[in-house]
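Forwarding the complex inputs:
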Amino acid sequence: MKNKYSDILKKLKLKITPKRIEILSILDRENYFKSPEEIWQLMKKRFKKIGLPTVYRNLEDLAEGGVIFRIIHPDRQLYYYFCNNKDHHHHFVCISCKRVSDVDYCPEKEVINYVSKRIKGKIISHIFQINGICNVCMNIESSLGGTK
Amino acid sequence: MKNKYSDILKKLKLKITPKRIEILSILDRENYFKSPEEIWQLMKKRFKKIGLPTVYRNLEDLAEGGVIFRIIHPDRQLYYYFCNNKDHHHHFVCISCKRVSDVDYCPEKEVINYVSKRIKGKIISHIFQINGICNVCMNIESSLGGTK
DNA sequence: TTGTCTGCAAATCATTTGCAATATT
DNA sequence: AATATTGCAAATGATTTGCAGACAA
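Prediction (whole assembly, four chains):
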């Protein structure tokens, strides 16, 4: 299990430090997106002296390496999410519980033509994120009773 | 022409102030996304004493009302864009010159099924933005000569 | 008039940076 | 040993807030 994260770091040419392993492990543990601050709090359980900048720097490096993903949030704050899905994909984000689900569909191919023909431009990247309510939260909601 | 903006503000139940008119006019003038700071600089030409918070507050209100759009940018900074397109649509953003072009295609319908069947969730909103190089910038680029 | 909008000054707060000490390879 | 990583303290900088005066309806 530890090897999984070591391999990831090795591929990114990042040194294998216990803190990086722990960050990946924390994010991999649950399908929720997390803020640097939250991750820092969890890290402090194991590393008494860890600094918040370390968390920020590592999250940034990992996201840059494409190993974790940034979640777009109105908070004007960064959130991160790890998933094992190696193929290009997108995310469904529950705005209630922060759970993330992979969406194995990418709209890029639908607009390549549009962009090249009509806009005569070249696509470099794209952002696609679906926000909503996950099934768990929908059930909670409905069990709270509520036509109103 | 002035009526266009007044009507917009009226619909949003916002008071019709010269500053709001000017913000809309500035954003409507060119197809570029702009930061609050940039807009503020432009505003100061007419309103000597205008404060930056006024710009922030109004941009936020207008975006909330769906009249202007937020552009997602790695700067961790807000940018705004105005377009006359009333139908639901998305944007192609030139990362070189900040020009925005409308994309009259929405991927939501492609994933409604996916989300309801496989994730069993409910979509509330979605974000789709295409980043690239516009035709103007591509031509500049290629005229700079460049196999390398 | 009445509630909204604005300017100003100050606060907030997530994120970043510099640098010396430490850990990884 | 050589280089990358980290902790700490301090800086940064976009955005927000409180409040009293000004303005739109």
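Chain A has a mean pLDDT of 94.
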